[in-house]
Specification:
The structure is a single chain. By secondary structure, the protein is of the alpha/beta class. The protein has one domain (about 1-160): 4-Layer Sandwich (Purple Acid Phosphatase, chain A, domain 2). The chain has helices spanning about 20-25, 40-50, 60-65, 95-100, and strands at about 1-5, 30-35, 50-55, 70-75, 80-85, 110, 120, 125-130, 145-150, 155-160. A five-stranded mixed sheet has the order 3-2-1-9-10, covered by helices on one side. Strands 4-5-6-8-7 form a five-stranded mixed sheet, with no helix packed on it. It is globular, with a radius of gyration of 14 Å.
């Protein structure tokens, strides 16, 4: 199973995503967006591409918040994956301490907010942040992620 993970796109248009990201989304078994879309048209466009799961972020307005949950748990093969932006915002330096209690028993936690990539296994949990697919500040470049799931789960950060 191939899951393409994006976050912090800060756009409401799929046309603002890099072509390579759109191509990757089209070949995915699942698409996960970890929040900060800025508008419902991007949510709608992602749903048209393929199986989509997402959460709203701290800058998303009522249109996105009506469509998506704040917190999501996704079953992918034999793995449970927690997804949260977090929508309450706050310091990016305390993200892990705030997210961990929200997802007991998961094998991965996907989040956004910091715009900084992360792909680390700690204490049996994959911590995964795809960064920003549009390179929105403070990201240093455009990035997205791929989770590959078979008998194991493997994360990869793609830098454009």
């Amino acid at each position: 199973m191939k899951i393409v993970v994006i976050s912090d796109t800060h756009t409401d248009s799929i046309d603002d995503l890099p072509r390579r990201v759109i191509d990757e989304l089209s070949g995915a078994d699942m698409i996960i967006h970890a929040g900060d879309f800025t508008g419902k048209p991007l949510v709608d466009a992602l749903r048209k591409i393929g199986p989509f799961r997402g959460v709203y972020g701290n800058i998303d307005g009522p249109d996105v918040r009506r469509e998506l949950p704040e917190i999501e748990t996704v079953q992918a093969g034999s793995f449970k994956i927690g997804v949260n932006h977090p929508a309450e915002g706050g310091s990016p330096h305390t993200l892990e301490q705030r997210l961990k209690p929200k997802f007991p028993g998961v094998q991965a936690i996907i989040h956004g907010h910091s715009h900084q990539t992360k792909n680390d296994f700690r204490d049996g949990v994959l911590w995964f942040n795809p960064g920003s697919a549009t390179g929105t500040f403070p990201a240093r470049q455009k990035t997205y992620g791929i989770l590959t799931i078979d008998k194991d789960m493997h994360g990869e950060i793609i830098r454009l």
